[in-house]
Every structure is written in structure tokens, then in C-alpha cells.
Task: inverse folding
DNA sequence: TTGAAAGCGCTAACAT
DNA sequence: ATGTTAGCGCTTTCAA
């Protein structure tokens, strides 16, 4: 038994097969201009020596690493986790490895990671900036040369060329949800979402307002509560909100944490969902699906986001036509048990 | 404005600074044996040219890539996502990049990814095998030379040397939970968990049985329901379970999906939690915390798992002493509202 | 079709 | 302290 198996280099294989390193390289890669005999001998030798080509070395020549980076604020956030998962799956199919980094929405860290990715010569990257205005980082991005696909953000492109991006139609989603609640008779509706520093929040707010505008009802009833995505904070905030004189009769809440905060606040105040308070979840999390009563939710496919992003990137990497460079994914309203007409007070 | 900025190589810097490449390398790295003047000039030149060292090229010499792999079945699974997140955070602090791959518990894919990681010459890896018996893969692992840390699995080591590993004390957790229920008066308790192919399930079952054994009560009351982690299946299974003549008066359920299935089954059957059925969640998910009534849960820190794993790996990478090679993390029982004495029938 | 040889950008050993 | 040089393992001309 050999002690260290993986030392085998291409020269070893060449020697074992009785051919030149060039032939080994050709035999193992393209297979072009290789006689059957050489191909066979090389394969046998490689097998015997358990030869594993060194990608690092290859990279130096080919200027490609077979790796792409993925930059998100937090892979543990369910809203990102599935995107990352799906993107990795697609990329792996083509032999690409994915390196991930969490930025915690820290612009400095984002810049650092972009630099790190470039230093590592990653072939491309998927990125979801923590804000749309980390100008310097994106300028850096642009100078990298490696293709970039933006995940659901409005990052200003270079000149008139927008970045390739996968976008989710949060605006239409929010509009649909709000319209639905208004249709049920609600006039005071609260939107609980993280701040408008990023596209999803901005779009939701726009859709929310649009629904009020087009219904021609008192826009004062559109209660927009910006907040961080912390459950405790959300709960405190929600408590305050529900204690108001003219409290909202419906709530649209983002994600798991904020939704949870809102639900707990309602419970603490003795409000029953949906009788006293209608609730719509933004993002169809396990919690929404499984809660009693089941929570009506805005759903979009995170897997599709990840897949589409990977696809867009692959397109660039292969340089196959420009194709289309942006994807807009739909948002659906999944009707469940958490919305009814407002209590008649 | 230069069009392509990043072409600058170490030779360019050397030329610009009027020194040799060797000096540039020294100046930029160790800083040892470098005069102040050279250091200054090199720094200036590097800055001016926006020089970014090519890690690929460096790797070829140093035989280290500054990257570690992370192999889990699914990064989108909340049980893994936080581990990955925490590990990445710790590794990044030391300048390491993390590449992730999802194996979907497919042994072939696991082997393929291990091979890919080795080909890429990753410095080390964190791995949570989909079963403890993918022998061939782990043999491969062993021959790699790169340090490996196992995540909460019992992978047989080489000879008498166990793999470095971060383990969670699921056994003690399950024992505590079961003992607690028995103490409340329960005599028929169901454990709903995925199969025993992996350490966590096995350990839980062991702890569950141990609690019954030490309480000296009828072991027939220990109902072990192995199942896949699918909500529908869990629900069907739970329905069957709760319809039995001598139905369990308490349930211990893993994760979000199975827990949700059990809760829905109970609801469908008109059983009230906790009056008719006590429930303990295994894993303190959002659902458990937010459900009404709030579900008593077994909790362990996924972040600690990730951090500890990263730490163990770093230890190996630095070759600093053997230190300890295994960490056993505690599981706590978080008391909430879902457990009371069984109904007196 | 094959072999020989020139690098890819960097570090490290060796000279100076 | 600094410059020179030999590779790291591979791909890819260029000859033969």
C-alpha cells in the first residue's frame, strides 16, 4: 500500500505510459490528435497511479479556475439559503465549484470579498449586495473582467449597460396582496419590511402604495413600518402598532422573523388571527405554511432565482451570444386561512 | 483610464519600483529582509498599478490554496445552514475562503466532491456525510492528506485514530426530554425522527430508550417512529399513531417538517396541545418558538457547531499541537408551554 | 500523431 | 539586503 497516493504528477503518468507529458495532457483532455494506443496506455497509467490532475496548476495556464463566487449577506437566511443551494446545484452540474461568503451587509466586507474573489481568479460571481449603493465595490466589480450576475438588486450598471441580474417582481406581489386585503374590506394595513435600502423593500413599498392609490382610498391607511429583520424588534414594533387607537386590521410581514414577531405580538394582545387581524406573509416559509391558522403568503421560487442566476452566469462564461441578461420572476399569492374581512367595529 | 486594470503582475511592480521580483515578493509578504526604502517603493508601485497577487500562481508554489471545502447534504436545510454560516465566518477571519457543495446524501456525489476538493487542492474540509457508512469515500478522504473535520457523524477513523469531529450530544438531549415527560407522568411516548443511518438519529433513539430503561417502566411505551423528513409523510404517520387504541400521550418530533406534521395531525384529530398531547420539538426552530402554544424544545447551538468545526480545522491547518480532536456540544431542554401531565383516562 | 520546450505568476533557495 | 534563477504541474505552441 502506498502511503501517499496523490503525489502522482503528469510526468509520472507520462513515464508510466511511456509517452510525453504533452501526449498525456492531450489524451486526458481533448482527446484530439491522440492515437488509440496512447489513449489506452495513458488511461491505464493514470488509473494505476490514481492520477488526479492539479487544477491549481492547470488554472495557471488556462486562466480559469472552475470556481465561481457567491456573495450574500447570510447563507443561513432562508431567503438566501435556497438560492445558494439551487445555484450550486446547477453550477456543479457543469463541474463548477462554488465558494460562498457572508457579508453581513457590511460594505467593507463586500469590497474585501470581491477583491478576494478576484485575487483567487474566480471565473465569475453571483452577488446580492447589502445595499444598492456600495458604489466603490461595484466599480471594482466592473473592472474585474469576470462576469457578474446580480441577485435581486438594483445595482447601477456601467454606462448604459445594466448588470445581468435575476429580479423578483416584489412590486407586483405586494400590489396583489394589498389589493386582496383592500378587496376584503381592509382600510388600514401595515407593511412590515426591512428598510428600503434594497430593491425588494423598495419594490414592495411601491406596490403597496400603488394598490392604495388605485383603490382610491385614504392613503393614510397605508402603514409602512421599516425595520430590521430581528424578531424581538419586530415584536416590539408590532406591539406598538397593534396598540394604536386606529390599529391596522391587516398586516403584511416579511420573512420568518418579522412574521413571527407580528404573530406573537397579536397573541400577546389577545388578537385572534384572522378574526381580529388578517395576516399575509411575504415569503412562503415553513412557518407560514405550517402555522395554525395557515398563513396566506406571497411566494416566489427561490430555487428559480438560484437556477436562473446560475444559468445567466454560465451563459456569460461560455460567451454564447448575449442572450437576455435579465430575468424577472413572478410572485404569487398563496391563499390560506389567515385573511378575512376586518372586524366590524 | 486603463481599460483592463488587473493585468499587473509582480514583474510590473518590480519594474515600476525599480527592484527585483524577489524583493517585491518579500516586501509584500513577510516583510523580512526588506529595507524601508524598498518596502515603500514597492508599496507605492503596487498601489499605483492596483496590483493584486495571483493566488493561483502562489498556490502552485506554496502548495496551499487558502480554501477549505464544506460538504453537507443541503445548505438550505436550516440544520446545516447555520453551521455553514458560522464556519464560514470563522474561516474568513483567518483569510480562508469556503467552497460548499450539496451532496443530497448521495454517496456517489459525496465521493465525487471529495475528489473535486482534492483536485482543487483545498487545504482542508468540513464534512457531514449522508450516512456513516460510505466507506469508500472515507478511505479516499483519508488518503488525501488534507485535514478533515467531521460534522456530527460517526465516521469510523483509520485504525485507532478517530477523525477530528464536532459532535452534538443528542443522546443526552433525548434522555433529558424523555425523562422530563416520564416525570410528568407520561408512559406512552413517541419519538418521531428520521432513520438511524446517521449519528443524530441513533443517539436520540439510544437516549430515548435509556430514559425508559432507567425509569423502570414498560418499555413498550417507547414508540419509535422512523421516518423521512417529509411533512406529509410525518403527518400521515402521526395520524396513524394518534389513532391507535393506546395512543401516545406525548410526542418528541424532529425539525420543522415532522413537528409540523405532528401538530397538524393532532389538530385534525381534535387533540389539543398540551392538554391531550404533550409535544417536544427536537431542534429549536422558529416554528417551535412561535407556535401557540409555544413548543418546549431541545436546543443546541448550530453556530457553536460551525465555529468549533472551523476551530478544529484551523488547529490542524496550523499544525499547532494535537490539541483535542473532538468536541461534544450540549443539548438543552427549553421549557415552554407544550408539556403537561397526561390526561387521566 | 507525437515530443520538446516555453512559459503561466509566483516563492524560495542561492548568490552576491 | 537584494538580485537571479529554478521550478510548482500543467497546457500549448512549434517542430519533427
Result:
Amino acid at each position: 500500500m502506498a502511503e501517499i497516493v496523490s503525489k502522482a504528477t503528469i510526468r509520472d503518468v507520462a513515464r508510466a505510459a511511456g509517452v510525453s507529458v504533452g501526449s498525456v495532457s492531450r489524451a486526458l483532455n481533448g482527446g484530439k490528435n491522440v492515437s488509440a494506443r496512447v489513449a489506452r496506455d495513458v488511461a491505464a497509467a493514470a488509473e494505476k497511479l490514481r492520477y488526479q490532475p492539479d487544477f491549481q496548476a492547470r488554472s495557471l495556464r488556462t486562466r480559469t479556475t472552475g470556481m465561481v463566487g457567491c456573495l450574500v449577506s447570510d447563507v443561513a437566511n432562508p431567503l438566501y439559503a435556497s438560492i445558494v443551494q439551487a445555484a450550486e446545484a446547477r453550477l456543479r452540474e457543469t463541474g463548477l465549484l462554488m465558494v460562498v461568503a457572508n457579508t453581513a451587509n457590511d460594505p467593507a466586507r463586500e469590497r474585501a470579498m470581491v477583491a478576494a474573489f478576484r485575487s483567487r481568479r474566480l471565473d465569475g460571481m453571483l452577488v446580492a449586495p447589502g445595499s444598492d449603493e456600495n458604489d466603490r465595490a461595484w466599480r471594482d466589480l466592473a473592472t474585474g473582467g469576470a462576469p457578474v450576475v446580480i441577485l435581486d438588486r438594483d445595482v447601477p450598471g456601467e454606462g448604459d449597460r445594466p448588470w445581468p441580474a435575476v429580479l423578483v417582481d416584489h412590486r407586483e406581489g405586494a400590489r396583489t396582496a394589498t389589493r386582496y386585503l383592500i378587496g376584503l374590506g381592509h382600510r388600514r394595513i401595515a407593511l412590515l419590511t426591512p428598510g428600503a435600502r434594497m430593491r425588494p423593500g423598495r419594490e414592495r413599498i411601491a406596490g403597496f402604495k400603488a394598490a392604495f392609490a388605485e383603490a382610491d382610498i385614504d392613503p393614510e391607511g397605508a402603514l409602512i413600518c421599516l425595520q430590521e429583520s430581528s424578531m424581538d424588534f419586530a415584536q416590539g414594533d408590532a406591539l406598538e402598532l397593534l396598540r394604536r387607537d386606529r390599529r391596522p386590521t391587516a398586516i403584511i410581514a416579511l420573512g420568518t422573523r418579522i412574521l413571527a414577531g407580528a404573530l406573537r405580538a397579536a397573541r400577546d394582545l389577545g388578537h385572534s388571527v384572522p378574526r381580529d387581524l388578517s395576516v399575509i406573509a411575504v415569503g412562503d416559509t415553513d412557518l407560514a405554511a405550517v402555522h395554525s391558522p395557515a398563513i396566506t403568503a406571497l411566494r416566489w421560487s427561490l430555487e428559480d432565482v438560484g437556477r436562473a442566476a446560475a444559468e445567466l452566469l454560465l451563459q456569460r462564461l461560455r460567451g454564447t451570444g448575449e442572450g437576455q441578461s435579465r430575468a424577472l420572476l413572478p410572485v404569487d399569492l398563496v391563499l390560506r386561512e389567515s385573511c378575512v374581512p376586518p372586524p366590524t367595529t
